[in-house]
Amino acid sequence: MGTASLIVAVVALAFYVVVWTICLLGWRTARIRYAHPTLPSRIASLSPSSAPGVTIIRPLCGLDQNLYNTLESCMKLDYPKFEVIFALQDENDEALPVVRMVMDRYPNVDARVIINSQRIGVNPKVNNLMAPFQEAKYDLLWVLDSTITVVPGTLARSIEAFLSNPTSYALPNDPESSPLLSISDDVRKPPTAGEVGLVHQVPIAICYQKTWGSLIEQAYLNTTHAKMYLAINATAIESCVVGKSNLYSRSNIAKLTTPSPSLRQRPIPPTGLAGFSPFLAEDNMIALSLWHELSLKHAMTSDVALDFLGSLTVRDYVNRRVRWIRVRKKMTLPATLLEPFTESIVSGIYGSWAITRLLGANTFALFCLHMVIWLSVDLSTKKALETNVRGIGPLGSSLTFLAAWTAREVMAMPIWLMAMTSSDVVWRGQKYRIIASGEAIQLEDR
């Protein structure tokens, strides 16, 4: 038993070090990339004839939190050449009057509404995006979720990150000219293998309605989620993307083959966006396909995607976390099984025990020290991410945030256990079953 516990302690300590390495990498990335004022991109000063055109697509369904402000943010961008498409599937959608108000206030912005009830699969967002993808003026597409707000310089900095590709843009006559000052939309080529094919931002949450569910969700997104998201993307060993704010080439998306086993059985399997219609996590699947099938890299900017949270109950928060864990476990089971061991309380327990077993110490004191340091890293990460957006949203109470953070950490393990007991999820009022491929099968209402 002594030898067995020694081996277990060594393995536990090694994994504990790995967990802390990931946490500190995420924290360090946040401090380096976000904890300073953002600089304007040179692309913002280009003429419309020199800048690459971008189509911004806002898929909408119903009245989301602060919808007017989120939609208005994409009308105030500091960028010389873009259009905005507001995509809906129902002409009676409650979001449409808000869209009309925003368009009326900014008549000089190239904006339009597309209403299309086309349904090609279970994912309503993919259904909503089909027509805008086909009708967009420009090859560069920036898809922004309805709850996301961005600051005026975000698009220009995203394009600059996209243009880090050495060969995606043919240069005019002067080969010595800067690529950033010599871009013509007529000569643009889609990215190819080894180049940047997707630009995204880390989401952070803003709470206007301070219910406990929304506060706990905010604590999760602005600390644990952000650290892991930034760390995984910093290593660049695998794709890790959420679809809150994604910029990519329509031509690249059109080349993708469907990752769906069920769709591949058809005589003519769908390609492009339609091939991702069976997945609830279509954003992650598209990013994975760009990464693996086309060998395109992903890039991030010094901007964040501000996610305006609605009024969530604690039950709403639990259901949301359960839903996405159930989706992930069908896509990456090994990583999902390891997930609890990366959480603060569980890692603190086995890490403190391992150090005590190997080196001798007070386990409880080590655990308390672990939690204090973990909280400090989380608060520092949150502060860095909020550097350039502190004027957006209401001021928050430190004690309230600490209470929400504590609740999030305590609830992490029970939520994971609940998620592992089933593969059924509820999304936008509809029940689905997630199968082995990660696809969703719509279930009849019971």
UniProtKB/TrEMBL annotation:
Family listed: Belongs to the glycosyltransferase 2 family.
Molecular function via GO: ceramide glucosyltransferase activity
Top-rank EC class of the record's enzyme: transferase
GO biological process terms on file: glucosylceramide biosynthetic process
UniProt membrane topology term: Multi-pass membrane protein
Keywords for this protein: Glycosyltransferase, Membrane, Transferase, Transmembrane, Transmembrane helix
Main location: membrane
InterPro entries: Ceramide_glucosylTrfase, Nucleotide-diphossugar_trans
Name used for this protein in its record: Ceramide glucosyltransferase
Keyword check for Amino-acid biosynthesis: no
Subcellular location, record wording: Membrane
Domain of life where this protein originates: Eukaryota
Organism: Kwoniella shandongensis
Enzyme Commission number(s) of this protein: 2.4.1.80
Any one Gene Ontology cellular component term annotated for this protein: membrane
